[in-house]
Specification:
Layout (H helix, E strand, L loop, with lengths): L1 E8 L3 H13 L5 E5 L7 H4 L11 H4 L15 H14 L6 E3 L2 E8 L4 E8 L4 E12 L4 E6 L13 E3 L14 E5 L3 H12 L3 E6 L5 E4 L4 H9 L2 H25 L1 H16 L5 H4 L12 E4 L2 H7 L3 E5 L2 E5 L2 E4 L4 E3 L2 E4 L3 E3 L6 E4 L2 E2 L7 E2 L3 E2 L5 E3 L8 H22 L3 E4 L20 H4 L20 H10 L7 E4 L7 H9 L1
Parallel strand pairs: 1-2, 1-6, 2-3, 4-19, 6-23, 8-17, 9-10, 9-17, 10-13, 11-12
Antiparallel strand pairs: 4-5, 5-6, 7-18, 14-15, 15-16, 19-20, 21-22, 24-25
Helix pairs in contact: 1-4, 1-11, 5-10, 6-7, 7-8, 11-13
Amino acid sequence: MEHFDAIIVGAGISGIGTAHHLKTKCPSFSFTILEGREAIGGTWDLFRYPGVRSDSDMHTLGYSFKPWREAKAIADGPSIRRYVRETAQESGIVPKIRFRHLLREASWSSENACWTLLIDRPDQGDQVSLSCGMLLMCGGYYRYEQAHTPEFKGRDTFTGTVVHPQFWPEDLDYAGKRVVVIGSGATAMTLVPAMAKGGAHVTMLQRSPTYVVSRPDEDAVANRLRRYLPEKWAYAITRLKNTQLQRYFYGRTRVAPEWVKKQLLAGVRAGLGPDYDVDTHFTPRYNPWDQRLCLIPNGDLFKAIRHGQADVVTDQIDCFTPTGLKLQSGRTLEADIIVTATGLEMSVMSGVAFAVDGRRINFADTWSYKGMMYSGVPNLVQTFGYINASWTLRADLTAEYTCRLVKHMKKTGTRVCTPTLRAEDANMVARPWIEDFSAGYMQRVMHLFPKQGDQGPWRNTQDYTKDKRMIRHAPIEDGALIFSNPAPGTRAQDVAAAAAA
């Protein structure tokens, strides 16, 4: 069986970033990348709906080691895909990727101190096994093969086209068509102005409003700095500026939510004019950042509404009809195309079945270690980015920590690292994996995710400043991460139990 020091799962923005860190900081460390699809890019290769873009700026969504060079900081999907692929090519990572390799099962053996992976190869019509010392899960957090679509009464009676953004057909012609987009999240906010620009009349149908904020798609400070400073300096300064602004704004939503709400709604009124019913269509029932804010680059949604190319209806669906939708208010919406931008399905650990020494792992029974490892599960690191800031800020920190970890293990001659609850952790208060975030796609599955504690290192803070201290600067040896070379016949849970005793 082919063996590697590490196997990375996923060739999206997290997996390529992790591979770059390993290749540059741990050059003697052997690894390969498993990618279930046929292309690099992950999310940014999968999603092809009109206008697909980031709602995080590319100076923070981009990698710490590779400056973003384009003028637009709020970038479209194809630009981000090119950036990730370019990173893989420049770093010499592409030859290490095994496309159409889908991980199904991962089994840890304490006796051999390694993971054995069972991998589907759809192109070959078979399965293959590989082994590794460290398993690095970089596959994101949602199911690629399945999206969230509620059951709608009468859906089969609709004679038009129904499409979910996650599975957008390349040949869908919507010019001159009546389109209803069901949803009010980031995807809907992107689709509505993009399809309106493409010649459709678009109605965004929402059960309840979402907070939106309009910002320019170009960062004037970043573009100016690039004229006068070396590229890396300009990028670093812009990245610092933007992370601090993100931190400040999010902090204000926690301590002064009414003030933030007032500012956000004032921006909407400025974008839509004094006669628009902002209270009905753009004033949520929750506080800012209890769910993710939606970014409107250059006010594009507001412009589409003002120009009569789009409108917003706040109501609930009673049923589909042959020609559109009947709403609970009694109103009907005629449609040629209905887009169900109703969200995604989250996946715990990419849906992989895990076992340690023959014992199936239920991650809901584990405790999060620094938001990236799990109690009682050896030699496993998962990349899970931020919900309230750019994903890649956390992905970079996780990759840096992984490199620190494997260097420490090489230096100390240890092969196993296992997060282990200590005696002082016995009475920890269990908290959800993600706190203070009420979005439905999270709440539907949060009970399946690991717990976090109320003290470090068992916190999943979702705070970049705190994480830099905990992940980048805290010592590797902290009494909770147990390093060992188990004797033959020793099981991981026995090692952990002995350490905690």
